Amino acid sequence: MSLEAYRALPRQKQRLEIKRRIPPAVVEEAIASKRVAQPGKVADKTLWIYIFWTPDGMKMRWAMRDRATGGPFGEIVREGGDDLDRYNLK
Prior knowledge:
By secondary structure, the protein is an alpha+beta fold. The chain has one domain. The protein has two helices and three strands; from the N terminus they run ααβββ. The protein has helices at residues 3-8, 24-36; strands at residues 45-54, 57-66, 75-81. A three-stranded antiparallel beta sheet has the order 1-2-3, with helices on one face. Strand 1 and strand 2 (57-66) form a beta hairpin.
């Protein structure tokens, strides 16, 4: 894409509240995991935030992953946020 084509695209801005949309217990669990992690190491439990731009505006999903369950990033043990099923192509 050329610079001119990029500049011609419409600019869209929207504020998205994140903090109040993630349950406090999930945030506390991620913080507690970081406190017990070895210095310089990634905590076992990490909170991932995904932000999507949709035709209806910005949407957000979150997921807590636990590296103790296996896999390089850990399995998703809790998740929530906006329902995005209506945007899936069928």
